[in-house]
Amino acid sequence: GAEVVFSVDCTKLKEHFVPGKREFDRIYFNFPHCGRKAGVVKNRQLLAGFFHSCAEVLAQEGEVHVALCNGQGGTPADQPRREWHNSWQIVAVAAAAGFILSHVHPFKAETIDGYKCTGYRSQDKSFCVEGALNHIFTRSTAPLCFTPMSFQTQLGSQKVSFQVPQVLVDKINRGFLEVNSSHPVRTIKEKLSSGLSQAFPLQNISSCLPLLQQGHPGGVCHSSIFWITLSPGEAPGTEKMSQGHFLCSHFGQDMDGNVQEGCPDPKQFYLRPSLLPHAQAIIKKGAFSPGTLQVLSGPVFRKCRITPHSMPAFHEMLLVLAVSRGTEKSYVQMLVENIKTTMNSIHQGVSGVKPSISLQEAASFGTELSDFAAFERQLGEIQHFLCVGTEPEPRGSCVGVIRTAPGELKSHELVVVSASLNLDLLAMLLCGISDWRMLWTWDRRFLRQFPEGELRLFKSFSLYPPSYVHDVSFWLPDGQDFDEVAFHTLARRVSGEMVVSIQLRDNFQQPGTGRRSLCYRVTFQSCDRALGCREAAEMQLHLREEIQQHLAVTLR
Prior knowledge:
Elements: E1 24-30, H1 40-57, E2 58-68, H2 90-95, E3 99-106, E4 133-139, E5 150-155, E6 158-163, H3 184-196, E7 202-204, E8 212-214, E9 227-228, E10 239-240, E11 246-247, E12 252-253, E13 259-260, E14 269-271, H4 276-285, E15 293-301, E16 313-324, H5 328-351, E17 356-361, H6 371-379, E18 384-390, E19 393-405, E20 414-422, H7 423-431, H8 444-447, E21 468-475, H9 484-495, E22 499-509, E23 516-524, H10 533-550, E24 554-555
Parallel strand pairs: 1-2, 7-15
Antiparallel strand pairs: 2-4, 3-4, 5-6, 8-14, 9-14, 10-11, 12-13, 15-16, 16-20, 17-18, 18-19, 19-20, 21-23, 21-24, 22-23
Helix pairs in contact: 3-5, 3-7, 9-10
Keywords: Aminoacyl-tRNA synthetase, ATP-binding, Ligase, Mitochondrion, Nucleotide-binding, Protein biosynthesis, Transit peptide
EC number: 6.1.1.20
Family: Belongs to the class-II aminoacyl-tRNA synthetase family.
């Protein structure tokens, strides 16, 4: 019952099938080869033509299966693994056509009835298929188009709108914590709330928290803040800038949410970097029931360096409790034990492995802090860091902080105990997600792994994504410090979060003139979609242009 077509050019599949027969669910290419003694470059070109051809005839949810001899693919699945330059680089070649590697498994010719491996050097001879692998590719989601976005929110008694910093366009209103969401971040929040309700009366006050804050965030480094300019006519003293951005009368904002100074009269707005000020405002108003655990949750926004666990947007869960003076230590212990119990239960249900959860004194935590912990320290004194460890890092990552604030209540008999938890980091650690960007993916295959809020160990649908390394060096302006966080934020924007690492390679000072030059190594890699070599090179060229324009450096 099958139709067999001969003399098909695998790089021109569309020409061999009429439009009604082009939506293939699977396309198999077992042991592609140019023939005779063709080298790796020619075979890469063959695969490149094949994958581009597949993109024209494959169904949206279809698969492309490519079987290769041991070592040819160039992925870690090959044992032994060839050097990259001596392999067919199949994942990078497929990425250029919009495909990601979703599965790899051994190719077992003996299980296929009537199959024979033949064609060695274009002859009717068999070849060795021991250790051969079948690579299964699927379509990647399309590249995101980051168009300027205006967002409306409540500020006091009025609604205001503002232009969202470009790096946050795909994160500002995702609704991960809403009632109908099955996102693991919401599931963990709900499970923590349920566990805490067994020990404390709970009051959830998250729905009315404003997204914008006004003024100067006390004690916080201003380069870590996403500054916002309200649309014209919605704040006193606004005027239009020539580039189309709108400038409050003291501080302006570029497309990265950076401050542009030089105007009079301070009237500043910024995206909330923490929920703590909201809790402090509730306390000062007296809308606070002693003994009741207040639960605040929502997204917060902080500029930070690029690392797998540092995120410019994440979901914070803030727990606030007023207790009698002298009992705060026992309440802290009770709060932490309840969180520990709930998290142990979650992790055992996900992987069967018990995580190590520890409460570490802030004084003994050392100076090497994660971006999350370092920023929390800027917000105010911390008594304890809450750390969760899983294999292979049993020492633990900081996922929360505990504070006690005796001076925030009018009553001298009460003390405020608060715990701030990073729900995104918790989801990563408990579900085995290695890259924070995966939490924000638009690929539906992510949420399919968590049906109806069920937590499971995450299995990546994009295996061995290719990485592309580029260097950039530049002279710094005389007498000025270099804002590395602004550099990382700019790289996030230019690449659409495709930069996975930025490392300082060289810090050079020119003898005689004293001019300083920095050299950074920038690594481009996507965790969830196809990224080709040419696309990464274009991002690097764009990055060079942008750092010269926005950071006032001179490229070398």
